[in-house]
Structures are given as C-alpha cells and as structure tokens.
C-alpha cells in the first residue's frame, strides 16, 4: 500500500500558541504546569489534525515538538550538558538556560546561552552541540517516549523523529580548548541511542525516523564505516523497530553508497531539492536494497501548491518498480519551515491565495497523491481538477508576468555589471567630493527602534495616524537622529531607518511582485518567528522607495548622508520565492529595481549609498561543487544593483558574519568602495584573511559588538583598531560598529559611539 507520511509538523501553532506559552513562562506569567499542559494540548491538536487529514497511522511524526530547538532537545536527551549549566534545575531551567542564557543575580547565577547556527540553508537556527573530549552520554530524559505514549493514548500511532547519531555529532563541535573530531565519539554515543530505541519499542513504536540531513553535505569516505556501525548497532538494539532514514535539503549523491547496505526499512529522499536524483536512487535501491523509498515530492521549504499530476507521475514510476508497499509519499523535509495553514489569510488577494499551500494544505496534497496512486486518479478526481485549474491560472496570470520587466532584463548589457573606473580612481574622486578625515566614522544604518517608533507604524497601518501625522513623526525622529550623530562626532551620517519594520519587508512592500501573509509565521529560533514576504511575480519598482527620507535627511546636515538599501540576494534569501523560474532570474529582477533606486538616490544628491548583503553567505549551496555558479550570480546581482552611478558616488556594502574565508573572492568581486563587516567574534582570523587575499577596497571591520547592551571602553576599541591596522592599510580603514543599532537603547548607543569616535580622532592625530 502506498503510504501517506509526514516528516515533521510546525510546532509553533496556528496562532503562535507555543511562542506565547514559553514567553509567558519566561516572564513569570505562567507556571511550569500550565506550560506543560499548554504544550500537550498543542501536540494533541497537531496529531489529530494530521490523522484527520489522512496521514497514515505509524507515519505521523512525534518528538517533532520542541520548546526551543530540536537539536537542543537531543543534547538534554543524551546528557550533553556543558559544565556551566550543571547546577541548574533539571530539566526546564537547564534547557532554557542552554538555549537563551540565564541571569538570576540574587542566586549568583549568570550563564550565557550556547552558540546558535543556521540549520543548513534555512533561516531556522539550531543550538550547536559542544562535546568534551571525555564526553559521557546517558539517556537523561524520556521526552520521545513520553510524547509517543501521549499520542498513543489518543489513539494515534506515531513515528518518533530522532536526530540521527551521525548528524548529531557532525553538526557539533569540540568544546572550547579541546581539539578532536566529534565523530570519534560515536562508539560512546550509540549505547544511549540504543536504550532510547529499546524503550520506544517497548512502548509500542513500530517505526522510528532518524533524520540524517548531513547526508546532503560532502562527507568523507570514512563516514561509510560510521554509518554502517551506527545503524547496524541500532537495528540490532531494537530488532522489531523499523527505521526510516531521512535525508533532506539536498541530494544524497555518492553518500548513497553509505546507505544501501544499511539494515533500514525505508530511505527518505528530497525530490524537490534533488529531482534529478530519482532515477539513480531508484535504480540503486531496486538492484541492491530491500528498503522502501519515502519520496519527498511536496516542497517543505516553500508555499506554492504542488503540481499534483507531476508528483503522481513520479510516485507511480517508483511504485511500478518497487511495488506499492515500498513507497511513501512525503514532504521534502519537515514542514517546520512553512507556515501553519492558509485559514487565516482572509485579506490576501484571492487569486494569489489560490496558488498557495501552507503546512495543513500540504498534508492534503500528500494524502491525495497517495490515494491517486493507490486507488486510481478517479478516486481524487475533484481534487486533481481543482489543482490543475490553480496551476494553470498561476502559470498564465498577468499578475505574474510583466513584459516590461522581462524586456529590461533581456536588455542588460555587460557594462551594467561594472563601475566606470577602477577603485583607486573612484576612491580619489569620492575623497575630493566627501573630504573625509582619516579613519572615517559611520554606522551600519539603523538607530534604536523604540516602542514609540513601532507604535507609530502600527497606528499608520490601523488608520489611527494620517499620512501627514506619520510623516511628521518620522521626520522628527530623523531630525534628532542627525543631531545625535553630529554630536557624537560621526563623519558619514544615516537617516536611521525609522520608517522600516524590517530590512526586507520594507522593500517588499514598496515593490511590485510581492505579497504579504497575515499569519504566515515560521520559527526562526526559540520563540522567535519570522513572516517571510512572498515573491509571486516579476519584480518591479513603481516608485522610489527611500529617496524621500534620505533626501530629507540630507537637507538637515552638511555632512554626507548615506542612503540605505537592502541588496538583491538578501531580499531573495529572506523571502519565499517563485518556483517557476531560477532563483538567479528573480534576484536579477530585484537587482534591477535596486539599481533604479541607487541611481535616483544619486540624482537626489546622496553621495554615499550602502547596499546591505548580510545573506550572501547563508545562500551558499550545501555541496562545494555547487558554490561557484551561485557565487557568480550572487556577485553579479550585487554589481547590477550597484554600478549605475558615477565614480564620485561611494558605494558601501555590509555583511554581518565573520566566516569570510569561504567567500572571499566573491567579496572582492562585489567591488564595493567600502565594506563594513562583523568582526567582534573572530577578529584576527578574519583580518588575516583580508590581508592574505590582499583585499584592495575600503573596509570597516566592526569595532564593537552591537548584539549586547554592554558599552565597550575607548581603551578596548583602541586596542581593536590597532589590531586591525596590523593587517589593513590605514588609508582604507573605516571605523564603525559591527551591525545596525536598531535593537539597542539610545543611552548605551550614545556612550558606545562617543567612545568609538574618540578612538578614531585620537588615531588621526597620531598618524597625521
Ligand atoms: C542584518 S544587517 C542590518 C543592516 C541594516 N542596515 C541595519 O542597520 O539594521
Ligand atoms: Zn548586519
């Protein structure tokens, strides 16, 4: 029988119930009991919803719930708890302290959170496991077993989802001070997994899902032996329990060799990310394995309705070779990365809404595909007819296709990817115009977004503010921000970004081709959710987006004003994007729109323009061999957006992560006149990279970390600047914080920026 299956359901709840529960627990409004009950109700609701949709018993996920992060859950589960948390109460206090830190001065408790990292190429963040060289593993919690039993009591047979041992180790790091490869801990880890499996089997579980997404990476050959050892061990620990091994986010590639010999009952493949892999996987499995295939045909990373006919064809093909009993229909990955359901989207244009499927709608797609293959297409005739109609409507909609945009893209010429002159000539022209001192000071763009600023935007949205009132309010904010910057002594000013809710959403709202959901929340980390805008059609810029505010700001000061834009790759990366054209094409459309804005800013007399690209690096494909084409078009998109100006207009860019080595040549290829970057966490390594690659343009490595309210002293920042100067040419060095200041308060901002400007001034005197 072809089985309808799911790999994971969004835990946050249709109305972000989980967010509210944990935040109320954190701020003391809810006690532990209420938190646990609330969570239990939410899980029950989600299991019932999946069962009612028709996901098969035994293939509804459990243990996909988490109060903070599923990787963190596994650290608690196996007792991988750094010593600094040892004295806290177990489990909840320890758990949340690991996730978000804990300060209880009255008890002398002050522990920072563990490191967080982006989960593969998603915008979800996981807690990075830290292992000691003498790490011990013991089963410290019964979460997966409890949740399994909880569902069973409701009459629902679930498939517990466990992060596989190889992925758990591979995604982790040796604790500070130790240097060993965590994978060497495998032998010690496996018994803890085995006792978990034994208990799950005893509780009545029939299937267990081991997520091994690291199979989408380039893995060393030695991993073949690790996989063999791990899964032979686990299969023999609980012989009756069937194992589904799940890879997602990319192709398995040659890692398939590691998998075919394993004693597993099913393998999940991501056919959305790697559709080209179906034939080879099918052939290999039919020749040399006994297990079933779970076909990830429904996109777990995007919000479009699936083409059911195309999916059915794929599933039929596999069923024809392996037989119906060896086929599961599934989402490409856990549905964690798509919003809950479309039910709340009552305000969205109905034509566009009809093209979408969020998690709940995706469950129905999975079930329909499985049924069509099992019982024939006639059994779901109505569903298929409606689906064909939606797909057809979307393909031909004139909301999507804008001939002017397509023509503009076709007319792009090679010289639209480069500035008129090389950097040295430009920098000299810019200096003539800007007359900046040595070590010029600037900020990354945003200034504190106070409650009043957020309230003003809400009032405008709700109609409680007229356009005039709002305009006056923002101008007042800009006025005082400029006065503030002049007083602390900055050289290149910004307007402060008070009119922006978010650096991508703001531009999305100004551009055509974007639509916004009301309730399309996706978990980003812990209780934090984001609502990515949706790019549904050709992108164009009906009107200037930022010129009005930047121009106003420039009239308020004699100092140069820096215009602030978000770059095309970041707009793409932080949105749900079209699946009907390559990402590159969408990015180039965004780039053209931003190019128009850049040119308009220049015309309006703005001498410096910053185009932020903090997301270039996270867009890197998971496989090395896919990097070059991505980096090539990402750099080109930036160039297309930034090169329409005269030599004397200074282009800045900004990136806020410190791991630059992977993409260094790309950073140089962007050919921005100045780049401001994060530098607070790994200074010397980063700077030596800039030195050894011989970076030629202006550069401002963040002098202090804006992610903390702490005010760094002059001495501290002076030391940092001195360190930088060991690696960088002093004529090219800028002085700035490491990211925007919007999450900070005014008081600490004032103190920190004053200290920063003093450091620059003192340096000028010395080096004059
Ligand atoms: C995540 S990068 C943020 C850049 C933006 N210009 C800001 O200052 O907030
Ligand atoms: Zn930043």
From TrEMBL:
**Keywords annotated in UniProt:** Amino-acid biosynthesis, Metal-binding, Methionine biosynthesis, Methyltransferase, Transferase, Zinc
Q: Which GO terms describe its biological process?
A: L-methionine biosynthetic process; methylation
Domain Cobalamin-independent methionine synthase MetE N-terminal residue range list: 4-320
Any idea which positions bind L-methionine? 497, 612
User: PANTHER family, from UniProt?
Assistant: 5-METHYLTETRAHYDROPTEROYLTRIGLUTAMATE--HOMOCYSTEINE METHYLTRANSFERASE
Q: How is the cofactor bound?
A: Binds 2 Zn(2+) ions per subunit.
Q: Which GO terms describe its molecular function?
A: 5-methyltetrahydropteroyltriglutamate-homocysteine S-methyltransferase activity; zinc ion binding
Protein name as it appears in the record:
5-methyltetrahydropteroyltriglutamate--homocysteine S-methyltransferase
One Pfam family name is Meth_synt_2
Q: Does the keyword Transferase apply?
A: yes
User: What SUPFAM superfamilies would the database entry show?
Assistant: UROD/MetE-like
Concerning CDD domains, the annotation shows:
CIMS_C_terminal_like, CIMS_N_terminal_like
Function statement: Catalyzes the transfer of a methyl group from 5-methyltetrahydrofolate to homocysteine resulting in methionine formation.
Cofactor needs: Zn(2+)
Q: Which residues bind L-homocysteine?
A: 612
Which InterPro entries does the annotation name? Answer: Cbl-indep_Met_Synth_N, Cobalamin-indep_Met_synthase, Met_Synth_C/arc, UROD/MetE-like_sf
List the EC numbers from the record.
Answer: 2.1.1.14
Pathway given for this chain reads: Amino-acid biosynthesis; L-methionine biosynthesis via de novo pathway; L-methionine from L-homocysteine (MetE route): step 1/1
Question: In this protein, which residues make up the domain named Cobalamin-independent methionine synthase MetE C-terminal/archaeal?
Answer: 439-761
Q: Which family does it belong to?
A: Belongs to the vitamin-B12 independent methionine synthase family.
Species annotation: Rhizophlyctis rosea
Q: Which HAMAP family match?
A: Meth_synth
Active-site residues from the entry: 707 (proton donor)
- EC main class here is transferase
Provide the residue positions that the database annotates as binding 5-methyltetrahydropteroyltri-L-glutamate. Answer: 19, 123, 528-529, 574
- Give binding positions for Zn(2+): 654, 656, 678, 739
């Amino acid at each position: 029988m072809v089985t309808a299956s799911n790999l994971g359901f969004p835990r946050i709840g249709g109305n972000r119930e989980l967010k509210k529960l944990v935040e109320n627990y954190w701020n003391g409004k809810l006690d532990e009991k209420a938190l646990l009950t609330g969570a239990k109700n939410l899980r029950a609701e989600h299991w019932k919803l999946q069962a009612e949709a028709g996901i098969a018993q035994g293939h509804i996920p459990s243990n996909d719930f988490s109060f903070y992060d599923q990787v963190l859950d596994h650290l608690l589960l196996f007792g991988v708890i750094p010593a600094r948390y040892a004295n806290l109460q177990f489990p909840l206090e320890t758990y949340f302290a690991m996730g978000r830190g804990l300060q209880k001065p009255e008890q002398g408790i002050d522990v920072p959170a563990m490191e967080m990292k982006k989960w593969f190429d998603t915008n979800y963040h996981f807690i990075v496991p830290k292992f000691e060289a003498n790490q011990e593993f013991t089963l410290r919690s019964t979460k997966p077993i409890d949740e399994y039993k909880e569902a069973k009591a409701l009459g629902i047979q679930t498939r517990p989802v466990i992060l596989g041992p190889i992925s758990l180790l591979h995604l982790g790091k040796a604790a500070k001070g130790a240097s060993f490869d965590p994978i060497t801990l495998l032998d010690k880890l496996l018994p803890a997994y085995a006792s978990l499996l034994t208990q799950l089997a005893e509780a009545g579980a029939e299937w267990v899902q081991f997520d091994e997404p690291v199979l989408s990476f380039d893995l060393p050959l030695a991993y073949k032996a690790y996989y063999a050892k791990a899964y032979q061990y686990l299969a023999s620990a609980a012989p009756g329990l069937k194992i589904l091994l799940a890879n997602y986010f990319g192709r398995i590639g040659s890692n398939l060799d590691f998998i075919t010999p394993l004693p597993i009952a099913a393998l999940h493949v991501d056919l959305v990310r790697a559709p080209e892999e179906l034939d080879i996987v099918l052939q290999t499995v039919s020749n040399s394995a006994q297990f079933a295939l779970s076909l990830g045909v429904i996109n777990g990373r995007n919000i479009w309705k699936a083409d059911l006919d195309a999916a059915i064809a794929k599933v039929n093909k596999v069923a024809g070779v392996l037989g119906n009993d060896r086929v599961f229909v599934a989402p490409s990955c856990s549905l964690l990365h798509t919003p809950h359901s479309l039910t709340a989207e009552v305000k969205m244009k109905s034509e566009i809404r009809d093209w979408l499927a969020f998690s709940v709608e995706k469950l129905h797609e999975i079930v329909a595909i499985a049924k069509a293959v099992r019982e024939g297409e006639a059994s779901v005739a109505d569903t298929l007819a409606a689906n064909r109609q939606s797909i057809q409507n979307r393909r031909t909609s004139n909301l999507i296709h804008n001939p002017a945009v397509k023509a503009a893209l076709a007319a792009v010429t090679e010289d639209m990817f480069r500035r008129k002159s090389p950097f040295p000539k430009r920098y000299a022209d810019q200096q003539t115009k800007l007359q900046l001192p040595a070590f010029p000071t600037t900020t990354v763009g945003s200034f504190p977004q106070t409650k009043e600023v957020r309230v003003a935007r809400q009032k405008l949205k709700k109609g409680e503010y007229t356009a005039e009132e709002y305009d006056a309010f923002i101008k007042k904010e800009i006025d005082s921000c400029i006065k503030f910057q002049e007083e602390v002594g900055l050289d290149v000013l910004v307007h402060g970004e008070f009119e922006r809710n978010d650096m991508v959403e703001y531009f999305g709202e100004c551009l055509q081709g974007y639509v916004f959901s009301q309730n399309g929340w996706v978990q980003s980390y812990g209780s934090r959710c984001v609502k990515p805008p949706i790019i549904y059609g050709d992108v164009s810029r009906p009107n200037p987006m930022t010129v009005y505010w930047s121009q106003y700001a420039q009239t308020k000061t004699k100092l140069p004003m820096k215009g602030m834009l978000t770059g095309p790759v970041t707009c793409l990366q932080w949105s749900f994007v079209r699946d009907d054209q390559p990402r590159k094409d969408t990015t180039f459309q965004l780039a053209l729109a931003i190019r128009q804005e850049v040119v308009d800013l220049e015309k309006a007399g703005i001498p410096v323009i910053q185009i932020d690209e903090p997301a270039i690096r996270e867009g890197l494909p998971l496989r090395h061999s896919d990097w070059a084409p991505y980096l090539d078009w990402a750099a080109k998109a930036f160039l297309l957006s930034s090169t329409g100006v005269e030599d004397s207009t200074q282009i800045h860019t900004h990136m806020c992560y410190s791991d630059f080595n992977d993409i260094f040549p790309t950073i140089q290829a962007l050919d921005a006149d100045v780049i401001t970057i994060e530098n607070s966490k790994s200074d010397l390594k980063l700077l030596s990279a800039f030195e050894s690659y011989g970076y030629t343009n202006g550069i401002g490595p963040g002098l202090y970390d804006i992610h903390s309210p702490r005010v760094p002293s002059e001495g501290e920042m002076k030391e940092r600047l001195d360190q930088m100067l060991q690696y960088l040419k002093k004529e090219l060095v800028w002085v700035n914080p490491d990211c925007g200041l919007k999450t900070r308060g005014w008081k600490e901002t004032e103190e920190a920026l004053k200290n920063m400007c003093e450091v620059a001034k003192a340096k000028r005197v010395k080096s004059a």
